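Today's session is about reading a structure prediction critically. Students often jump straight to the picture, but the first step is always the sequence itself: look for stretches that repeat, for charged clusters, for runs of hydrophobic residues. Only then move on to the predicted structure, which in these notes is written as discrete structure tokens rather than atom positions. Here is the chain we will use throughout the hour.
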Amino acid sequence: MAKKFVIKVTAGADAPERCSQAFTVAAVAVASGVEVSLWLTGESAWFALPGRAAEFELPHAAPLPDLLESVLAAGRITLCTQCAARREITEKDVLEGVRIAGAQVFVSEALADDTQALVY
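Below is the predicted structure for this chain, in token form.
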């Protein structure tokens, strides 16, 4: 069984169920003691900003701010470099604990031993 999860979420409010599933899986994995690295790409990049997760709504889903907080508390959240640049998001704009990194770091994490990568 993989001891680490690298989860890339490519959807935001544009595909709320897919977005929520990614955050839910990441939060459940963290709660289960799995090392998690959650990557925000595409429209999910906006959730790296303070207050943006609170704007997300999906009936019968756990609140996105709670899921985000649990992953930040015990895992790692990374905002894609190019996605940030396209949205003019800088390191000074993001939530405390969110880093900005690029494809080389993602590939390195995803190909590490005992790691399972998922893309939503």
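Discussion point for the tutorial: The beta strands are 4-9, 35-40, 76-80, 98-101, 115-119.
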